[in-house]
Known about the structure:
DNA-binding; 17 helices; nucleotide-binding; single chain; 15 strands; 7-stranded parallel sheet
Amino acid sequence: MATTQLEDPQNDVETTSEMPTTADDSASKVGFDEMGLSESMLATLKSIGYETPSPVQGGVIPIALAGNDVLGQARTGTGKTAAFAIPILETMEDRGKGAAPQAIVLVPTRELAVQVTDEFQRLAGERKFRCVAVYGGKPIKAQISKLERGADVVIGTPGRVLDHIGRHTIDLRTLRVVVLDEADRMLDIGFRPDIEKILRQCPAKRQTLLLSATVAPPVKRLAERYMHEPVMLDFSPKNKSVDTIEQHFFTVDGDRKYDLLNRLLEREQPSQTIVFCRTKRGCDKIHERLSRKRKGIGCIHGDLPQGARDKVMKAFRAEEITLLVATDVVGRGIDVSSISHIINYDIPQSSDDYVHRVGRTGRMGRDGVAYTFVTREEGDELTRIEILINKVLIEDKIDGFEAARPTQKRAAAAVKFYGAGTQASDNEEAVEAPVEAAPAPEAPKPAPFGRRGRSKHRRGL
DNA sequence: AAAAAAG
């Protein structure tokens, strides 16, 4: 039976707060039945297969239930959604028909709005509860009429939420809880002004829950400004990427990627896959070519009409689509437990994005595999990823697609430039790699792993 | 330069 230990169950919880909290490394050992949850909630959790709280849930639920603001550093997934949804549902007041929302959840993408809404509905079980997803790209009228009928919780992307506020179709004055999900991502996208406008519409006396993969200075500033003595919980693992995910890479020339993809799919016969691509155009191209000879291919990116996007996600969840070609729209947070393979057709732009993409697989404790296509110019990016996850990706080969560049050099360069302390403890490759094998300075062609940091520094600023 | 998101 499935458990709720979706995110790094072995990972310890670190609390960093001046106030004493209940969240320590024993938090995950506390059962749902020891959290003071209602009988109906416990019954619902049981019926949907939630047996043991994940560390995130173990940490967040009791603290949120006690009414505290929470600043949680945690990656995406059902574990996190339930962590804020359960306390919201448990403290729900019966305000009668057509009442204004009691909670609002802000998320960075429309797909996440849909996913979080579905999760709320699932966790609400039999109880009387209404939640409405509010996001752009779709006719606003349907959303308005739903809101008029009354919504206990509104889940949305900031732009459309603001639109509703302007039309007075959402009233935030009697709100109890605000959730900022994927806060770092929302700030990245440039939602800061929108988020602040929305927060200013909320009552001062409220509970604010902020979840973020990283707590960089911009996130901290937001928290300082809009949160009240937040309890800080850090669920970020020492080991950035989940151990149940096998991570490989191929070196390949750009113009041979498509052939390699086909060969890899033939070899792997994956049950469900996301192929991540850097550009929307690239997605379209790969999607079109793959669809010519295969069935169950889907495509999603920000240029597609929202109706099509929603449909594709639904079909993907229903496993009618088994291979999804996507941009980073779905790089974060999307939770489809049957995804067995992640293929980075293009290496992600930032190593954080890599961690998020790869985290789409290996969910619900299942195994997952990730493959990253690396061209000979992209050595730096690969190294940066390896430094971040503190692991050396295993090189894979398929006949006819030989490496453009030897692995030894790559690992050696990593050791040389980042120091021996960064090598993967569970991977002997990096340890054994001779430092002398680093790219020779007199090499005529640009050494991919060579002097990356320096040239950047020189040019930078 | 690309991606996301309000229309």
